[in-house]
Amino acid sequence: MLLQLQRNWIAFNWKDAPGSTQPYPRWAAIEERLLRYLRRLEEFCQREGLGSPVPIQVEVSYINSIGSGVQWHDHGDLHKVLTVVAPSQGLLAGAETTQLATAFRIRDEHDQVRGRLHVTAQPAFDVATNRPVLVLTLTARGAPHPATEDGVLSFLRLGHEWIVKGFTSLTTEPMHQEWGRRA
């Protein structure tokens, strides 16, 4: 885990490491730890007479490395992984490589736009095996409303929900079967 503090930025990251024996941290644990750091930052700023930090943007990102396997074999097979990509046809059938960048409006329970879900899919290779992988990044980004801890927490939870449900919506049923995903 990594906490990064800059003059106008606080980031809390978690990355799985090859060979790690640490269990995958669930969302609740990440959220709890981030809130603890935010509260410590608030206390520090108050103690030093700096005033309260005012959050203007919040984001949650999930970066998924999807290895080639049964359903897809090369970087031209993006349509076999993602529902929002169609296979190339005609003269240009069988693309050598495909990538994607798209965004969706994030709406709350009142149908108000709260931010955007940015999705990118980029071809890459696994360093250890040199096999094709797809790096699928989902980033929920928006302004906290209100600009308080409650607003930050509200958007973090909404963004997390959109990422989890968005991942399921964006990925194909054959991939779900390959992963053994249960509804």
Would you summarize the structure shown here?
This protein is of the alpha+beta class.
Helices and strands in order:
Blueprint: E1 2-6, E2 9-13, H1 27-47, E3 58-67, H2 78-81, E4 100-107, E5 113-125, E6 132-142, H3 149-170, H4 173-179
Antiparallel strand pairs: 1-2, 3-6, 4-5, 5-6
Helix pairs in contact: 1-3
Helix content: 25-40%
Question: Which structural class best describes the helix and strand composition?
Answer: alpha+beta
Strand order of the largest sheet: 3-6-5-4
Sum up the overall morphology in one term. Answer: elongated
Largest sheet: 4 strands, antiparallel
Number of helices: 4
Straight-line N-to-C gap: 30 Å
- What order do the helices and strands follow? EEHEHEEEHH
Assess the beta-strand content as a share of residues: 25-35%
Query: Radius of gyration, Cα only, in angstroms?
Result: 19 Å
- Overall pLDDT: 93
Strands, total number: 6
What number of domains? 2
Could you explain how this protein is built, in words?
The structure is a single chain. The longest helix has 22 residues, at 149-170. The model has no long low-confidence stretch (mean pLDDT 93). This protein has helices at 27-47, 78-81, 149-170, 173-179, and strands at 2-6, 9-13, 58-67, 100-107, 113-125, 132-142. A four-stranded antiparallel β-sheet has the order 3-6-5-4. The chain has a two-stranded antiparallel sheet with strand order 1-2. It is elongated, with a radius of gyration of 19 Å. The protein has 183 residues and is of the alpha+beta class. It has two domains: 1-53, no CATH class; 55-183, no CATH class.
